[in-house]
Amino acid sequence: MQINEIKHPLVQHLIGQLREHNRSPAQFRPVVDKLSYLLCYEALNTQTTVREEITTWAGVTAVARIDDSKITVVPILRAGLGMLNGVLDLLPGASVSVVGFERDEKTLKPHAYYEKWAPDVANKAALVIDPMLATGGTFLATVERLKAVGCKNIHGVFLLAAPEGLAQLTKQHPDVGITVAAVDERLNELGYIIPGLGDAGDRIFNTVVE
Questions:
Q1: Is 103 a known active-site residue?
Q2: Between 20 and 30 A from 5 (CA), which of 13, 152, 156, 177?
Q3: pLDDT digits over 16-31, tens only?
Q4: Which of 19, 23, 33, 199 does the annotation list as catalytic?
Q5: In sequence order, which residues have a C-beta less than 8 Å from that of residue 126 and are 6 or more positions away?
Q6: What's the number of domains the chain is made of?
Q7: 54 found inside a domain
């Protein structure tokens, strides 16, 4: 499995901003947008292009284009929605598929409550987005559902990941690639990433319980 941890100084600068405990949701969301944009850029570095002839000021020339209609972006509800705008800025022609999970706080297992796939999803590259890859449960379940509907090209994009979740993914789905801003130290006893940045969904949607 290819794990692409982005060491670019700007990416590291932005993930450092997200770790700040006192950053408000209004300050948190724009940074998530910027990071999502940059991580999507990195995740597309092996995307195939098509050759197309266009007319320039100096005549006809050939250019390379990404056919984003062959890509579906898959935010994992609800936190993944916070990354969607940044990704669609780069891929405006991509379709959006949606999966929803809730985590059982006792077992840490994901419970599916919704899924909606784009038409012809089996023939599209799936770019799954979620701020955190912690235990890996929701992403693994998403990969299994995508494979069940015939999707073969799957790539996950995360702000942070934990070694435990990456180990599970490597074991169960070694064909799936990952792009992430940082791989953190570990999970705590509650399944949260350490040092992490807290609950990304709560911070994006302003539902933090003090």
A1: yes
A2: 152
A3: 999 999 999 999 999 9
A4: 199
A5: 71, 72, 74, 97, 146, 151, 153, 154, 155
A6: 1
A7: no
